[in-house]
Write a structure and sequence with these properties.
This protein is an alpha/beta fold. It has 12 helices and 7 strands.
Length: 298
C-alpha cells in the first residue's frame, strides 16, 4: 500500500468504475474489493460518484452507499467523492453526506443545467463550500458547457472556495496560466491522455480512469512523470496512450470497463442510456488492452 499523499487530492486518485450485476443492480461488495485492490496496487485514493462511476443514473440511496462503501474499504482520507448536482443545495447536501461518511475532500463540477455565468459559478461553489470540506473544482467544459478558465479559477481560489482543480479541458497551456494567476492552487491532471504534459507543468495529482484496469502501470507512469524520469515515462506513455485517449471519448465508461474485463478484473455492464461499444470500437479497445497487458505488469 502506498504512503498517504500530503493532501487528500495528491497522487493517483482513481475515478472508480462502478460494478453492476447482470440485473444492473450495484454490486457493493465487488466495489469495496475493487477500491481496496486499487490502493493495494499503489494508487493513493479513489473518487466515487464521478462520471466514470455513472453517478447520473444512481438513485440517491445508491449514491450515498457507494461513498460509504469506499470509505469502509480504504478509509475516508483516501476517498474524494464527486458531489455534482443540478442544484447548488443538492450538491451541498452531497458534500455534507461525504463529510458525515468521513471523507477528507470532495470534487465539484460547476453548475451544468445551463451555461452558467461567473456570478452563478461563484454562488454555486460558495454554497457547497459551506459544507466545510475542501473542494476540488472539476473543469470539464466539453460536457458541462461551463468553462472554469484560469482567471475564474484564480478568483475561486482567492476567495477560499477551491483548493485544487481537476483540469479536463485538454488545453495543456492552461497549466502555466493557472500557475501564474494562482500559484497555490493545486493542478490535477483530469484527462488520462494529457498526463505527461500536465505532470511536466507541475501537476500534484491525477484523477485517473485507466488505473481501474491497469493500476500498477499507471502508477509507474505517474511517479516517473512527476519526478522528471522521462526515460521511464516516455516509453510507458507511448505504450499506454492508445488506451489513455479513450478517457477523453464519449464511450470512456464502456472502454474502461471492457479493459477491466480483459485485465482479469470485473468491469461488467453499463446502465442505460449508455449502450455497449460498437464492434469496431470493441475491437480497438481489445487490441490496445492486449498490447498493454503483454508489455508489462497491469
Amino acid at each position: 500500500m502506498s504512503d498517504l499523499p500530503r493532501r487528500p487530492w495528491h497522487g493517483v486518485l482513481v475515478a472508480t468504475a462502478l460494478p453492476f450485476r447482470d440485473d444492473l443492480s450495484v454490486d457493493h461488495d465487488r466495489y469495496a474489493e475493487h477500491c481496496a485492490w486499487l490502493v493495494a496496487s499503489g494508487c493513493d485514493g479513489v473518487v466515487p460518484n464521478g462520471s466514470l462511476g455513472e453517478y447520473q443514473v444512481l438513485t440517491p440511496e445508491e449514491r450515498a452507499r457507494v461513498v460509504e462503501t469506499a470509505v469502509a474499504a480504504v478509509g475516508g482520507e483516501r476517498v474524494m467523492p464527486g458531489v455534482a448536482a443540478y442544484g447548488s443545495a443538492e450538491a451541498r447536501r452531497w458534500a455534507e453526506q461525504a463529510g458525515a461518511a468521513g471523507c477528507a475532500a470532495v470534487m465539484l463540477l460547476p453548475p451544468n443545467a445551463y451555461r452558467a455565468d461567473e456570478r452563478s459559478v461563484l454562488a454555486h461553489y460558495t454554497e457547497v463550500a459551506r459544507a466545510g470540506l475542501p473542494v476540488v473544482a472539476y473543469n470539464n467544459p466539453v460536457d458541462t458547457k461551463v468553462d472554469l478558465v484560469p482567471e475564474l479559477l484564480a478568483r475561486l481560489h482567492g476567495e477560499g472556495l477551491v483548493q485544487a482543480v481537476k483540469e479536463f479541458s485538454g488545453d495543456v497551456r492552461r497549466a502555466w496560466r493557472i500557475a501564474e494567476l494562482a500559484p497555490e492552487l493545486d493542478l490535477l491532471a483530469g484527462a488520462d491522455d494529457v498526463l505527461l504534459e500536465l505532470a511536466t507543468a507541475g501537476a500534484k495529482g491525477w484523477v485517473a480512469g485507466y488505473p481501474n484496469a491497469l493500476p500498477r502501470a499507471s502508477v509507474e507512469l505517474y511517479r516517473a512523470a512527476v519526478s522528471g524520469d522521462r526515460a521511464t515515462a516516455l516509453p510507458l506513455y507511448r505504450q499506454l496512450h492508445p488506451l489513455l485517449r479513450w478517457d477523453s471519448r464519449t464511450e470512456f465508461v464502456q472502454a474502461i470497463k471492457l479493459s477491466m474485463d480483459l485485465a482479469g478484473r470485473y468491469g461488467g455492464p453499463v446502465r442505460p442510456p449508455r449502450v455497449p461499444l460498437l464492434p469496431e470500437q470493441e475491437a480497438e479497445v481489445r487490441a490496445a488492452t492486449g498490447k498493454a497487458l503483454a508489455a508489462g505488469p497491469a
